[in-house]
């Protein structure tokens, strides 16, 4: 009875607080825009307006420091008074950022970093005090499981919030702090590793408990994701632990590498974690926890989601084959020039022959028939295609086919082709023009998120770019609203029902088109089936 009374009083307090979003004369006042969330009361950021209200740096879990390092997210500690949500939190401690041109294209910002990083940010166009039940979108960013932050300019939520979504970005632990498994950690909790995924689940649980106060609908939550973030989201798609916490999913340029390989098992990850500790001179868990976060992240480690028996109970393809996945509408695809920021497959004919023989062995001749080359010039012309096709195209193509064949919910496939002609800025030279990179990995995000005006670095986008961004972001918000990207005057996007279906080209042309690179995709079906040692799950 006492618990019921206490919950009722909290609800009443939250209702009274959320009615304080405007001053006596009716003008919006961020300082009076107060909400009750898990942990206490928050005031909107000073930058908020009546049109877009912003809340930054809201804790969704306790700081994972000290004895809480390498533990599942713990409950938020309550605070007294009003927490002013004016500033982003520090990002989680990152690994080393890529050097050179790929770094300039993919990861521009250098944020304040801390192990105390489990915070999220909310943008909403819902009126203060209103219960509007808008669709909710939560981002899982990319960064190779080593980098990233929910506060990067390209992820700013205003672009999608202006189209009707309540947008949430969050931080998750990366590198060894986010994925280390170790026998002592397993003994402590029954499983280990996948802390980044637990962070994502904790943020989704926070959304379920709190998002209605921001005008969001907890029954219409979309996880949208890119690259390694899409790799994490793909695990959530197959995880019973995430069941019911989201209702649609977007996978952009699914970037798990190596593609087609089984996920690391807990035993394998524990062995790697033990070796990691030994290399640091930390042979026990207590010694590992005594190391600084910077020491941990500076050491060599290959982070990846693992089959831990908790968040992920089996290999993803086997869970799909058994129809043990979260059957929600799925929108996914890839870009025309995904691999251009990365190393070339080869640059000479001799290097091409050696790489093909080493990588594809008995299937090298088939590979060479798909990517024919008779000269150094031919090799340079196809140098970035194998990585594009084998990683960033084949994975969405395969998940789309499995989802369409085994699920009941709709599947939607896209192909992003815009090659912007922005001017050469400090990140480019005449010898290294932006046209070299084309529709590169991660480019689609500022279009889909309606953030051209906030891209980092700023670039000289044209009216064509703005028209593409308007259409792409409208498709995304429509999908978050209904599970179907179609609506209004947008060109009709056909559902993907199987290999014979079309994909939706989004670029200078916005229209259905044949799925590209089919000979290459068919080759990688054969190669990865051989690598897995079992049929693909459809």
Which parts are unreliable, with pLDDT below 50 for 5 consecutive residues or more? 1-20, 99-104
Largest sheet, if any?
A: 10 strands, mixed
* Gyration radius, rounded: 23 Å
* CATH architectural designation: 3-Layer(aba) Sandwich
Mean pLDDT: 91
The number of domains is: 1
Q: Give the name of the CATH superfamily.
A: Alpha/Beta hydrolase fold, catalytic domain
CATH class: Alpha Beta
In one word, what is the shape?
A: globular
Strand-residue proportion:
5-15%
Number-wise, the strands total 15
Count of alpha/pi helices:
18
The CATH topology: Rossmann fold
Largest sheet: spatial strand order: 3-5-7-6-8-9-12-13-14-15
Helix-and-strand structural type: alpha/beta
Distance between the termini: 52 Å
The helix fraction, in percent, is 25-40%
Overview of this structure, please?
The protein is an alpha/beta fold and 538 residues long. It has one domain (2-341, 385-483): 3-Layer(aba) Sandwich (Rossmann fold), CATH 3.40.50.1820. It is 34% helix and 14% strand. The chain contains 18 helices and 15 strands. It has helices spanning 2-18, 101-106, 158-161, 175-179, 183-189, 195-210, 228-237, 266-279, 285-290, 293-298, 316-321, 349-360, 364-370, 376-381, 385-406, 444-448, 463-482, 518-532, and strands spanning 34-37, 40-43, 53-59, 82-84, 119-124, 134-140, 166-170, 216-226, 248-252, 264-265, 306-307, 330-335, 411-416, 503-506, 510-513. The strands form 3 sheets. Strands 3-5-7-6-8-9-12-13-14-15 form a 10-stranded mixed β-sheet, sandwiched between helices. Strands 1-2-4 form a 3-stranded mixed β-sheet. A two-stranded parallel ribbon has the order 10-11. A hairpin with a 3-residue loop joins strand 14 (503-506) and strand 15. The protein is globular. Residues 1-20 and 99-104 have low confidence and may be disordered.
């Amino acid at each position: 009875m006492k618990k019921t009374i206490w919950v009722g009083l909290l609800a009443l307090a939250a209702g009274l607080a959320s009615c304080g979003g405007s001053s006596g004369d009716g003008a919006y006042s961020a300082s009076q825009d107060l909400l009750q969330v898990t942990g206490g009361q928050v005031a909107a950021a000073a930058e908020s307006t009546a049109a877009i209200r912003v809340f930054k740096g809201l804790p969704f879990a306790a700081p994972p420091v000290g004895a809480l390092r390498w533990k599942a997210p713990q409950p938020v500690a309550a605070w007294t008074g009003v927490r002013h949500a004016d500033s982003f939190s520090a990002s989680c401690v990152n690994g080393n950022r890529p050097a050179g041109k790929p770094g300039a294209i993919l990861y521009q910002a250098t944020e304040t970093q801390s192990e105390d990083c489990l915070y999220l940010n909310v943008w909403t166009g819902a009126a203060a005090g209103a219960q509007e039940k808008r669709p909710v979108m939560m981002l899982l960013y990319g960064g190779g499981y080593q980098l990233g932050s929910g506060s990067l300019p390209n992820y700013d939520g205003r672009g999608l919030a202006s189209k009707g979504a309540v947008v949430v970005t969050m931080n998750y632990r990366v590198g060894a702090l986010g994925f280390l498994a170790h026998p002592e950690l397993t003994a402590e909790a029954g499983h280990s590793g996948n802390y980044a995924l637990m962070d994502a689940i904790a943020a989704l649980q926070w959304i379920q408990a709190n998002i209605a106060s921001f005008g969001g609908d907890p029954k219409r939550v979309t996880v949208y994701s890119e690259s390694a973030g899409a790799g994490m989201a793909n695990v959530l798609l197959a995880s019973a632990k995430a069941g019911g916490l989201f209702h649609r999913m977007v996978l952009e340029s699914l970037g798990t590498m190596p593609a087609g390989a089984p996920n690391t098992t807990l035993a394998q990850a524990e062995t790697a974690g033990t070796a990691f500790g030994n290399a640091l001179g930390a042979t026990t868990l207590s010694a590992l926890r005594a190391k600084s976060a910077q020491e941990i992240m500076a050491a060599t480690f290959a982070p990846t989601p693992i089959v831990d028996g908790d968040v992920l109970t089996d290999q993803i393809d086997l869970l799909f084959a058994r129809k043990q996945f979260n059957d929600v509408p799925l929108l996914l695809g890839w870009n025309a020039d995904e691999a251009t920021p990365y190393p070339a497959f080869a640059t000479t004919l001799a290097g091409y022959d050696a790489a093909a023989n080493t990588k594809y062995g008995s299937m090298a001749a088939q590979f060479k028939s798909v990517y024919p080359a008779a000269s150094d010039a031919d090799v340079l012309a196809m140098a970035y295609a194998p990585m594009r096709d084998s990683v960033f195209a084949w994975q969405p193509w395969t998940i789309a086919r499995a989802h369409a064949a085994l699920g009941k919910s709709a599947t939607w496939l896209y192909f992003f082709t815009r090659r912007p002609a922005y001017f050469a800025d400090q990140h480019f030279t005449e010898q290294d023009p932006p046209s070299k990179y084309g529709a590169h990995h991660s480019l689609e995000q500022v279009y889909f998120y309606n953030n051209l005006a906030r891209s980092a670095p700023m670039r000289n986008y044209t009216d064509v770019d703005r028209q593409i961004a308007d259409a792409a972001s409208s498709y995304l918000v429509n999908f978050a609203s209904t599970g179907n990207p179609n609506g209004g005057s947008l060109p009709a996007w056909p559902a993907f029902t199987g290999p014979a279906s079309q994909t939706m080209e989004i670029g200078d042309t916005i229209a259905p088109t044949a799925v590209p690179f089919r000979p290459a995709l068919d080759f990688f079906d054969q190669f990865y089936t051989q690598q897995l040692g079992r049929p693909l799950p459809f």
